[in-house]
Records
---
Amino acid sequence: MSGPTESRVTSKDVAAAAGVSRSAVSFAFNDPAKIADSTRQRILAVAKELGYTPNPVARMLQQGRTRSLGVLLPQDLPQIMENPYYSQFFVGLGQVCHREGLTLLLTPPLRNSMLKAIPYAAVDGFVVCGLEVDRGEVAELRRRGIPFVLVDSDPPEGVPSVDVDDQAGAREVVQHLLDLGHRRIAVISFDPGPDKEAYGYRGPLARRMAGIREALAGAGLAMDDLPLIEVPCTREDGYHAAKNLMLLDEPPTALVTLSDILAVGAIDAMHDLGIDIPGQISITGFDDQPEAAWVRPRLTTVRQPIIAKGRVAGDFLISAIRGETQHPHQVLHTVLIIRESTGPIR
Amino acid sequence: MSGPTESRVTSKDVAAAAGVSRSAVSFAFNDPAKIADSTRQRILAVAKELGYTPNPVARMLQQGRTRSLGVLLPQDLPQIMENPYYSQFFVGLGQVCHREGLTLLLTPPLRNSMLKAIPYAAVDGFVVCGLEVDRGEVAELRRRGIPFVLVDSDPPEGVPSVDVDDQAGAREVVQHLLDLGHRRIAVISFDPGPDKEAYGYRGPLARRMAGIREALAGAGLAMDDLPLIEVPCTREDGYHAAKNLMLLDEPPTALVTLSDILAVGAIDAMHDLGIDIPGQISITGFDDQPEAAWVRPRLTTVRQPIIAKGRVAGDFLISAIRGETQHPHQVLHTVLIIRESTGPIR
DNA sequence: ACGGTCTATTAACACGAGTTAGAAACACGT
DNA sequence: ACGTGTTTCTAACTCGTGTTAATAGACCGT
């Protein structure tokens, strides 16, 4: 009966059992040329017998590489995993990991701080997601010498980054509504978080807002003329926000939501209120997540290439890890997907 | 201008700059009681000045813990991430990580081998997913002394494991069809992989097949009487399989699929063929993934508690890591969700 | 038998931390 | 002045690996 809590067997144990030095064991595994084939075979046999496998952490320390990429996330794991956006992003990132033979370490905030999570992660580099307000994360990664890529942020100069042209996307979708004759347009935005007070809008949200403003300006409208509701990004919140908007004295004829999830909730609300889409109201989403094509009516939305974003972020990170010193900054395009949830005003 | 490739600063550098020993630096950070407060402040100041943060890998090696859980996966990352099943599973596992303050390391097969991936992962324990044919993974983890939990497998004795009562689920859904009067039932199964030849059905697939067989037996039918198609688990494959089944001389009146994805494809096929669901054919899924409630008609399916499975697996792993020597084996229940895609034979 | 070349093997170090035992410095009471 | 006790710091070890420089030994030709 081999004890269940047998202490882990190290290369020292193998060396002792085979009657050689520790170095010989290492050579047997890593550098067959430096050792006689007969003793190599003997060492390997003993190693197998004892069930020896090198300790990954020790090897990481010695080699200075971990063979895994880190993703520094802005929310806790359950929230991230519930969000289909990240599923797609991880598909793209996963393609790179697969190609390079790397693992993926998901690093949520530690005690509500992305910064605090950094020093505990054993990775070769970080993809930093949704860092809208930099609380020292960039400086920390920089001086620590860890390669990293910023995604969905306000990228400072000299840092590799990947973003999407949120502004153009928002502009186009609002322009689409204007072209259909809508003027009373309401906006349902996802919550900018507590940082809005101190910093105003940041990152993708700021760009989307700017895009909306830009399109409105072309029609002689201002943001302040429109009702705006900010809620957490769940279906229920979209539902309630939309319902409340329809109770206004002059209810909107079009609803611009900044996320498909909110739009789906809004569609539910209209359904319950007996309001026809797009006959009485037009609704738009953002992201083009799978739900957008499932709901009825199918959702007009702004598609952003999430999988490509993940893949490009991974590629940039790989090249940063390889020591290439360029700092590429790529902005991916959005596409307006017109489906059935928008129509002309009547 | 601080150089960009400044070599990482270690505790030795801090010690030298502060004129103390390395140990003092360590104490300043970890054990304030063992050092004079004045020098502690000085060390911390110097450390901050130099931008020192302890190396996570070195600490892991010394402390013998990594503060991260591993998930040993049966497929490559892109495939995993495309699969909504795993998104839900990771939500449950993420809850545990969040509670315990741990990170999550996704470990796909290395060169097509789960076994080979094990020695490269720096984790405190593994959740092993979908290990249907054990090629030494269990032995490897055991002798390495790494705690682990098996999920969706054929768990051997003395190993913590979490499973779902697939057999009961399959039995009930087939019974439901039998109760509706169906006798010509076809099965679309996901591909059992190349191991079927050598080992036959294994794991959840084996249990689901057994459940089907069991229900059929009650009605005096045998598995061999039914058409069975095995395909990879994608929507397109479900589509083509369903279409082919309808071309048979005596087409089935009910379609049992072993995954919602396949069922959704089958629904598409019936739509294209102009066959009414559930008027002319009944279709059932398995898992109750979000799509099941989105498609029209809404899918009758077997719900398995995926999030709970992830959470229980995480809990078992945590207690195994804590050294508790029980080997719990939990089987979660399924629920038959009857929606609109099944109806009485006519 | 001897110097030389070549090969198999090992001792010693590096990676970067945490930790134990003990030395040095100082205060105190007698 | 001496022993005792306390505080403050450090030398030296640990974790488990990979790698370099040096040693021991075998083999060869003359």
---
Amino acid sequence: MGLAGPCLPCDSGRMERYTPSLIEPKWQAYWAEHQTFKTPEDPKLPKKYVLDMFPYPSGAGLHVGHPEGYTATDIYCRYLRATGHAVLHPMGWDAFGLPAEQYAIQTGTHPAVTTQKNIATFKRQIMALGLSYDWDREVDTTDPAYVKWTQWIFLQLFKRGLAYQSEKPVNWCPALGTVLANEEVIDGKSERGSHPVVRLPLRQWMLRITAYADRLVDDLKLADWPESTKTMQEEWIGRSEGAEVKFPLVDGNGELEIFTTRPDTLFGVTFMVIAPEHPFVERLTTHAQKNAVEAYAHQAINRSDLDRKAAKEKTGVFTGGFVTNPLTGQPVPVWVADYVMMGYGTGAIMAVPGHDQRDFEFARKFGIPVLQVVSADGTVIDGEMPEAMTEEGVAVNSGPYNGLTTETFKKKVTQDLEASGQGKLRVEFRLRDWVFSRQRYWGEPIPIYFPVETDGDPRQGAAHTIRYDMPMPVDEAELPLQLPELEDFNPGEDPAGTLARAIDWRFFQRDGLWYARETNTMPQWAGSCWYYLRFMDPRNPTAAWSQEAAQRWLPVDLYVGGAEHAVLHLLYARFWHKVLLDAGHLNVPEPFGKLVHQGMILGEVEYTAFKLGDQFLNRDQITTNPEGGYQHKENGAEVLLVRVPEEDTEKKGATIILKANPKITVEARAFKMSKSRGNVVNPDEVILAHGADALRLYEMFLGPLEATKPWSTTGIQGVSRFLERTWNLGQKPVSDLAPEGDLLRLMHKTIRKVGEDIEALRLNTAISAMMIFLNELAKTEPLPRVAVETLVRLLHPFAPHLAEELWETLSHAPSIQAVPWPTYDPALCVDEAVTVVVQINGKVRGRVTLPADSSLDERRTAALACPDAQSHLAGKEILKVVVPPNGTLVSIVVK
RNA sequence: GCUCGCAUGGCGGAAUGGCAGACGCCAUGGACUUAAAAUCCAUUGUCCGAAAGGGCGUGCCGGUUCGAGUCCGGCUGCGAGCACCA
């Protein structure tokens, strides 16, 4: 690409060509030198805290998905600064994590080295986009000065009894050499890398997030979040209200407690189920059933989640034991089955096969009776129930409770059970406590140590016992507790973790006694749980943040990031926030106000067709096979889905066909960008070809911020052309004559539209409004200076480099960021004339043009009188004439 | 299976219950050029028609309304989340 293109003729002689590669670095250097985006200290300015979810700096560098959210917030921030706000807009790095460590295991490069290299790449790429971050506030979660306060927060949790150890079975991933949170396990495999995960009892640090379950649900109403995200969190927490009911063992040896949300079906209980891990298994099992129950329980407990999921059929064994139904006094058999889990409720259920799908399946399989106790309309089904009726209704076959609705029954029976001491109201949560330890190297060390009982020096291999039951917090003055240097980062097979091998770091002596440090590290979520707090006061050496900073900046006003964090990160951060609020370090209940998830940017649309050998086939000749592939319907031969170049296709009505073979239809679809697919778009290359302003503008113009949308190489040329045309306009001589008439009105309308759209993050329509304004200005001669300057000022948040350059060209001193946002006159935002649409029986039949100040009656009269209407009204009877209050149309109903 | 979201030209999309398709891409024609690229101008939902004009049209079926892409009910398809949670 040659830069010395032909000069366009113009009145002032030679015109320079729009060259982003020259002006973009120029202004980036200017902003850095003049600290244009430094967060203002002035407390009189209204504050706005605008936050992007900070990235994990991967080795692959930025992809085009990153600039989407970052550009949107950047536009918003530049607009807010121009409208007189003090804006806090920081960026940082979520830099602990597995990839750097995996790389270290393979190559021996220290993760800190890899991390710093990746951060440098990310920062260079983000800088090249011209984003207006206050780089003085940059944070890095792996920086000891940051780790110090992450550990400090852990100690606050520990001191409040919210961090504890547990020996429960956890998700151990042998391939990764670590334990994973429930949230990181998907279908029995690790979220990262899809490695198998097994259940293994290990000592773990847990965070008592369940203690905050109620508030985490209730306070969602304070957050201005997408409903879908709130729903996901609500469901993740999964609060359900029901009853705890006690079923006495028939042999008098205690009571079996169960949790149910349907105490109204107590009369329909025909069996009980307890989890294989339930402590009552032994007590309930009769001698005759002992072998069968033990075999089943042993097998079920060792079954991985993957196996449990794969099994579709219900399994279980009768214990031989019975309990008594507290309402009917009838004996009920107790079974062991793995469809009941120890981790939820009491690990035991009352089974009501008539009104629960799972119980129904179980009863069917093992020939257990099914009773009807709820009916939609009060009638009782004759004979066996054909399927479980899970809806609410009216009680039947329920003794004194017959005829009650489900809701009333629940309330009444819960009260009755409570009065007789046989049960009570109980609220259960799906949410479990958070497994907070990882057996890896590249994470924050957990600042805890334990006494060691030993006769010698444990570093020399002396026999010793670590008293894990006596955890002691590291003194706050000793923070940060830094990672030891290691040669080999391989986690190995010791579930105590990589750090267990750093003997000299692990064991230390104090006052003659030996102690051992915790060798687990924190999960990657830890750093991101509170980075928004550190940004408020990032260099504070004596506190994680100051009270004044918290008063000034919280809550985050706008938070933009991917929907993939809807549950994990956003729930964990809210939990820590509430703990810190309770500890008196914060003053607002929720960290994030408005939350927006940017949509994914897919790869370019791909055209595909089915091919067997060198023969193309149509969709209707193909079926999918169980492995997810395709095969020929008749002969079963394997068929491939192949990519077809776009130029070989042709559109024919609603379908796309092959040019060479019009009988073959082609499917068009965009796919998620991925290395393996080879459809990843690299921002560096886009900037090289079109400039950062074009990339920014294009990503915003693509569609609504929240939508998933495909990348298009030709599409970016449209916005590139717009920028060039704006540039060319800026090179033209301008007149000091004020704009007037329609141009003046369009200018005011555009100011209003762009401002309103930025505030609502409708950036695509804001750009389209500026395009319309430009198209009009390009036709205007002489060109009013005020109009060109207005366009440049409006464009500035979107294409800041171009705007700065044009602002200078228009003989102004930099920077345009210091120039207040243009204002509009509402009186000039309406047209002088209105076009009133004449509708007859719902069809548009004509238009009349009237002055903007005409009354509704005048419009009605003019519409009825217009020739187009008359020709459709001739010989018809007018039944009704409707003029809506905005007066844009007159609707006539005739017969 | 449950929960949530989405569905508009050849494509990305626009439209407080009020002119469907703004803006952009693509495509076609023209101007400029020796030529091409770039640029500029015009056309561009679809069908009938020489035109004037008219019919149809926002996934499908129905409803509310003077008026529905928009609201309500029922489907279908696609996407996301959850998934034996008692």
